[in-house]
Amino acid sequence: MTDAASNDRRTQRWAVIGGGLLGLTLAHRLAQAGQQVSVIEAAPELGGLAAAWRLGDVVWDRHYHVIMLSDQSLRRILAELDLEQELLFDTTQTGFYTGRGFYRMSSAIDYLRFPPLSLIDKVRLAFTLFYVSRIKDGRSLEQIPLAAWLERLSGRRVFAQIWRPLLAAKMGDNYRIASASFIWSYVARIYAARRGGMKTEKFGYIPGGYRRILDRFAERLTAAGVSIRLASPVEAIERQADGVHVRTADGEDCFDQVVVTAAGPQAARMCPGLSEDERQRLNGIVYQGIICPSCLLDRKLAGYYLTYITDPTIPFTAIVEMSSLVNAKAEFDGLSLVYLPRYVTADDAFWQYDDTEIRRRFIAGLQQVYPDLTEANIKAFQVSRVRQVYAISTLGYSDRLPPMITSVPGLAIVNSAHIVNGTLAVNETVALGERAIPVLLAAADAQPAVQPQLEIAE
Ligand SMILES: Cc1cc2nc3c(=O)[nH]c(=O)nc-3n(C[C@H](O)[C@H](O)[C@H](O)COP(=O)(O)OP(=O)(O)OC[C@H]3O[C@@H](n4cnc5c(N)ncnc54)[C@H](O)[C@@H]3O)c2cc1C
């Protein structure tokens, strides 16, 4: 982490492109290092994937977000924003819906009781988890296809009943092209929490949700002299003699250093001066997409925070009942807030459906799981679609990753694709930002200062 400004570091003008949590973390730490920072965000509000929206009369996160007890990097930022003490944690329940009913899967006892698996299956699953947890370095798994590896370790039935629904709930059909390092990072995260002394992981939130965190972040950044420009999609970034020029519809500004936090292909489009190799690396990243409706219901569901769906006739991959964690009376007007995520590949048929068609299919799916749910129970329904949520860790992923510092002097690209062998979460996003800061500052320090052009009188 970077704290105070280094005494002999010259102050440079920085633009951070993207006001998601990565951009905000970078801006915060750069300002603390004595730099002059502008954040330029395309959307009319900050937050990116963690932004809030209005659903009926409720303002809450547009995608479900929880904060884990073990999220140390994020909790440190929340402490700096004077919000950490407001975190509310609870133990939540997890369920499986198999087509024949619900099964709780929140403890070892639930797992031993889980009827779709025989005793031998359960032993094989336990062995797989133990085996994966003993692997020290996930990079060694980057050459191994995930699905075949898990099936070999756990058996076909365990793969179909447990692993496939878990993987589909995280990455849809992209599990077919992912490497085994994905599951290593997932298991490593769980075991890290346990090793940190936690018997059970807890989920939490800040009253007011991410809206509140983002408002406070913006307030603090502004007080520290950071300029925040919203509704300003960056069209092009180009190196010129006097610095790096950033063009938006409103005009052009010149900076000493620019850091782009947008997804790989978007970054490649903005930066025409990149080399062919850099362009190919950025465009070659395979991204996970999501279609994620939120609905407000006037009734509760089964009370699981997360229900994995193993029934392939249902169009979403999980049910997230946010109101099983969050105080619904205080935050949701007493209604239930439920998300129905469908993680999708770039060519999934569901991209072509409009909101009406998504609503029809997803509510029919929800009624399959809850046959007594009626149209009258649905008080609001809204669909979020994002094409580039996070990079799939495909075979040989880290060998093809573009470096953060580009070949264009003064231009860096740091984005969630640089979370290697980790899962996409705000904690990892903040940690990535903090890891990037010394790299960015070192590259900026190494660059000669641009000399103002002197006009020579004749
Ligand atoms: C469904 C879902 C559930 C999640 N659940 C959790 C959870 O429970 N807990 C958790 O910790 N994390 C969760 N996450 C992950 C979390 O949201 C991310 O880790 C984090 O928000 C990533 O931040 P980012 O800044 O890297 O990316 P983004 O949020 O994508 O930010 C990138 C920003 O760049 C902007 N941008 C792009 N192009 C341009 C341009 N041309 N000009 C200017 N700006 C541009 C975008 O508008 C965007 O604001 C979840 C994510 C999703 C999608």
UniProtKB/TrEMBL annotation:
It comes from the Bacteria. Residues 23-419 form the Amine oxidase domain. Gene3D superfamilies: FAD/NAD(P)-binding domain (3.50.50.60), protoporphyrinogen ix oxidase, domain 3 (1.10.3110.10), Protoporphyrinogen oxidase, mitochondrial, domain 2 (3.90.660.20). InterPro entries: Amino_oxidase, FAD/NAD-bd_sf, Zeta_carotene_desat/Oxidored. Pfam families: Amino_oxidase. GO terms for molecular function: oxidoreductase activity. PANTHER family: AMINE OXIDASE, PROTOPORPHYRINOGEN OXIDASE. NCBIfam families: PRK07233.1. This is FAD-dependent oxidoreductase. It comes from Defluviicoccus vanus.
